[in-house]
Amino acid sequence: MTTANDHWPATLQRVVATLDFELANKDPAKPEIRGKTRGDTGQLPALVSLAVKAALELDKRVGSSDSEAPVDRKAILARMDLVRALSAATRDSAQGMFVPGYATAYRMELARILWTGIADAPRRRLEELAGVNATPGG
After folding, report:
1. Under 8 Å between Cβ of 112 and 33
2. How far apart (Å, rounded) are the C-alpha atoms in residues 102 and 42?
3. I need a surface site. Which of 8, 33, 39, 110 has the fewest CB within 10 A?
4. What are the backbone angles phi and psi of residue 127, rounded to the nearest 5°?
5. pTM exceeds 0.90 for this model
6. Is residue 119 within 8 Å of residue 5, measured between CB atoms?
7. pLDDT at 124
8. Strand partners, 19
């Protein structure tokens, strides 16, 4: 049996695939990354665009090690692995070949925790995560 929200897990995987990560602080003692979108997301449907904003906000929460649901330790560790990989790639170009794998693993974690956080009411939860005022009927 299918429901009206069955498309969301696949949609969220596509949403997080639009994200890219770059070093915001190249200090080897405490490297930091920042999430950003690849390409122009302005032409996306409204709910998908909202999901992109929510994914970026969720990335910030994971980056700050916010343990409030839906963020969990697995996502925090995946992000830390990506940070280390990006940092190592700046020092040794041979390490750069591992970055796409770590980025993919982190994107999968983002999609998983994003779906966990919005599954009961996708539109309303996306608006909450993205920091958008709620709309009636969500």
Report:
1. no
2. 27
3. 39
4. -60, -40
5. no
6. yes
7. 93
8. 37
Hey, how many other C-beta atoms are within 10 angstroms of the C-beta on 18? Answer: 18
Question: In the predicted model, is pLDDT for residue 26 greater than 80?
Answer: no
φ, ψ at 37 (rounded to 5°): -90, 145
Q: What pLDDT, on the 0 to 100 scale, is given for residue 112?
A: 96
The token duo for 13 is: 């995987």
Asked if residues 76 and 63 have their Cβ atoms less than 8 Å apart, the reply is no
d(CA 117, CA 68): 11
Residue 66 CB neighbours (<10 A): 12
Burial of 59 (0-12, 13-18, 19+ CB in 10 A): buried
Q: Which amino acid, residue 16?
A: V
Going by C-alpha positions, the residue among 23, 25, 17 that lies closest to residue 89 is: 23
CA–CA distance, 129 with 52 (Å, rounded to integer): 10
* Residue indicated by tokens 């639009």: 18
Please report where in the chains the tokens 């999968």 appear, as a residue: 108
> What are the helix (H) ranges across the chain?
8-17, 46-63, 73-91, 99-118, 122-130
In angstroms, the CA 94 to CA 47 distance is 39
